[in-house]
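Dear support,

Our group has been running a series of protein-ligand predictions, and this particular one with adenosine-5'-triphosphate is the one our PI (initials K.S.) wants archived with full inputs and outputs. We had some confusion internally about which version of the output was final, so please treat the block below as the authoritative record. The input we submitted was:
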Amino acid sequence: KPGSPLLKLQNLQISYGGIQAVKGIDLELWAGELVCLIGANGAGKTTTLNAIAGVQPIAGGDILYAGDTINVLPAHKRLRRGVALVPEGRGIFTRLTVEENLRMGAYSRNDKAGIEADLERVYTMLPRIKERLPQVAGTLSGGEQQMVAIGRALLSRPKLLLLDEPSMGLAPLVVEKIFEVVQSVAKEGVTILLVEQNANLALEFAQRGYVMESGRITLTGSGDELLANPKVREAYLGEM
Ligand code: ATP
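Confirmed final output from the archive:
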């Protein structure tokens, strides 16, 4: 892999009060990659993703993005530089329409023609959503709401998309659909860091993965390597 990574975490530490939730992790993500971060509940995955987005302060170490240290850069400035977060629980505006939600994603832009073009791109990727533009978002199914959340993030034209458990609370068939959307976003050249409890599916779709346990990264490898790893199978894929 030539050049330098788009994102690099170096000895990243994050604390809640006196409690260290992330205990010095290293992670690298190259432009164009789809990488997943898996691990049990409470391992520190969401905390890590939030820190990269700038909505969670860090206690130590460094976050490097496109060659710059962005440790204390406010979230809205990271967004403008191309770091977009789809948070756990989706965070859509339930009383606004689907179209209003999508346009919210472009609030920091003023290139009108570019925004309209990106809307069209999102409609092509999410035809289900295009049919529902005037509908109030809170009345959509969980899977459709997740698609709106991803679509909204795409309207900021991200270079790095941070996805926090997009499969949460969705039926298996819907989860498959969401992962297909994630893959098509990756194919468009957006670099993706995906946090997932659904390790099996995440590792199937991702090129590489990191396993997090109690605030530390304990394993890393290609999706296939991790899928075949007995420790991963035992701990996360429900095998003994
Ligand atoms: P989940 O899948 O449940 O989101 P996770 O791997 O994303 O799990 P985090 O949510 O990052 O884990 O939590 C890491 C640790 O930090 C846990 O021990 C959790 O209890 C703690 N924690 C998370 N948020 C807070 C908070 N706002 N205040 C105090 N402790 C927190």
